[in-house]
Amino acid sequence: MSKQADRIIIFDTTLRDGEQCPGATLNIDEKLVIAKQLARLGVDIIEAGFAFASPGDFEAVKKIAEKVGTENGPVICSLARAIKADIEAAAEALKPAVHGRIHTFISTSDIHLEYQLRKSRAEVLAIAQDMVAYAKSFMDDVEFSPMDAARTDPEYLYQVLEGAIAAGATTVNIPDTVGYTTPSEFGAMIKGIIENVPNIDKAIISVHGHNDLGLAVANFLEAVKNGARQLECTINGIGERAGNAALEELVMALHVRRQYFNPFLGRAENSEAPLTNIDTKQIYKTSRLVSNLTGMLVQPNKAIVGANAFAHESGIHQDGVLKNKLTYEIMDAQIIGLTDNQIVLGKHSGRNAFRTRLKELGFELSETELNKAFVKFKDVADKKKEISDWDLEAIVNDEIQQTPELFRVELVQVSCGSNTQPTATVTLRTPDGEELTDAAIGTGPVDAVYKAINRVVNVPNELIEFSVQSVTGGIDALGEVTIRLRHESRVFSGHAANTDIIVASAQAYVNALNRLYSALHKEVKEKVTA
Ligand code: KIV
Ligand code: ZN
User: Fold this and answer.
1) Which residue is closest in CA terms to ligand 1's atom 4?
2) How far, in Å, CA of 234 to CA of 248, rounded?
3) Strands 142-147 and 171-176
């Protein structure tokens, strides 16, 4: 049997694998905000990034280690290839964390060995052992992943895992890197590992999987039944290509069907003890935060956190739910915090009430951020009588996300309607503090605004996604605009909330352009100093 954990360990990789999806790039402050929320959600381990990948990644891992890796906080982890320099960077960035983990990996499938690594099985086996031992010289908690394990020859996989555990790995992670496996195959693979790796009792078995065939969550649940005890997942299932296994789906499946899963963890079938440490009431809030900051929208029919996940449209369903919720509902919306949206503040609420409610919601803002958010709050409260928790979150997320503020929207004016050519005038403050105004006509008001903005910013880009959603019900609701644009092959996202959706559209676009502009300038700077 693998090293026994009496519950399921949740390893969140939103900030590492999740951030690898096009356009989901987050700055350090945004990563920190998400890490703090993940800690509130109760994840056991936060994979905060890949420290060696770039100075920005290194700083993000370090900052999260410092601010979130506290005595009672989660384990903070950095990814590292099975290369000394990677492991050293991970160890250095993780120094401030009370509980740190190095996660080192190397491919083991023949196809990766032959075409990507160009190394023999014997060479990879030796590297895996040596690099786990090297990581172990920095910290006790070491995780090893044989990349593309699901397509690796099982006999060779057993050898590599045995070697990694002998060298000190305390967790061995089994990745389905390309999302190829099926539930019964993956379950059998975990069973095979338990039966054939002699020292498996010294390590926790973890699973990691991509959703290319839409099977990631099902694969993980089968792995749990066969002895896996750590699940590597992301909020909203974001990640490379089709994404990773979604945290909220795994946690809620294990919660709602705990009587089914209990015996696989050696518990009595009717045990009510939770199978994970997750505070399920934080799920919805975390999902919104990640979606807002990454610009990765949640599809309406997404399980657990999609807008329609708890909506009953058909007459028969509505009739049943009104008579008894259990007829068509397997879980209450309250359990994921969906109904915790209270109307709390209004036009006459002062700074103290504002600050106090934000604190209760778990936001810790600096004085400058609080001042900015309060100005925006007053502006919204002037237009919208009642401000709910979700409005507050939208306002604060907007403020957090505004960095780097290179261009700033000073004015947006549109003229549109039937029998009129939509026209927009915009004034932007440039990074040099200059105010530039331009105007354009377009096919609609948003198109006209974007054309006018482009005339000022002057960086070629293609708009690839534009979405408007209302934060709450009601005609006076805040509108949230999320956009994604492409420059050459790179994708940048922007998000903004305003009661005026044209203004929100302009701000979201400028946010995305600011990210693009700052990436281009960083590259120029790096070239100059190289
Ligand atoms: O998908 C994968 O194989 C990974 C590894 C680095 C664990 O992300
Ligand atoms: Zn992955």
Assistant:
1) 177
2) 8
3) parallel
Residue 341 has pLDDT above 70, yes or no: no
319 and 337 in contact (C-beta within 8 Å)?
Answer: no
Q: Is 86 in the pocket of ligand 1 (CB under 6 A)?
A: no
> According to the model, what pLDDT value does residue 19 have?
92
Testing ligand 1's pocket by substitution, the residue of 147, 231, 232, 244 carrying the most ligand atoms inside 8 A of its CB is: 147
Q: Mean pLDDT, to the nearest integer, of 44-52?
A: 98
* Span from the CA of 375 to the centroid of ligand 1 (angstroms): 43
How many CB atoms within 10 Å of residue 382? 10
Q: According to DSSP H, which parts of 234-350 are helical?
A: 247-256, 258-261, 283-294, 315-323
Q: How far apart are CA 476 and CA 404, in angstroms?
A: 29
Cβ of residue 21 lying under 6 Å from some atom of ligand 1: no
| Ligand 1 nearest-atom number relative to CA 16 | 8
Cα torsion at 137, 143, 149, 152 (round to 10°)? Answer: 30
Quote the CA–CA distance of 393 and 50 in Å, as a whole number. Answer: 29
By the 10 Å C-beta count (0-12 exposed, 13-18 middle, 19+ buried), 530 is classed as: exposed
Residue 223 clears pLDDT 60, i.e. is over it: yes
pLDDT (0 to 100) of residue 328: 79
Any idea what DSSP says for residue 472? Answer: S
Residue identifier of the C-alpha nearest atom 3 of ligand 1: 177
Distances (CA, A) of 366 to 230, 358, 382: 35, 12, 24
Phi, psi angles (nearest 5°) of residue 102: -100, 130
Q: Which two tokens stand for residue 454?
A: 């482009």
The tokens for 379 are 């502006």
Question: What distance in Å separates the CA atoms of residue 100 and residue 210, rounded to the nearest whole number?
Answer: 25
> pLDDT digit string (tens) for 355-385?
888 887 777 788 888 888 899 899 888 887 7
Mapped onto helix, strand or coil, the DSSP state of residue 322 is helix
Structure tokens at 398: 């907007």
Higher pLDDT, 404 or 467: 467
Q: How remote is the CA of residue 235 from the centroid of ligand 1, in Å?
A: 16
Please state the φ and ψ torsions of residue 411, each to the nearest 5 degrees.
Answer: -155, 140
DSSP-based three-state secondary structure for 493 = strand
| Residue 402 CB coordination number (10 Å) | 19
Residue 174: strand pairing partners? 207
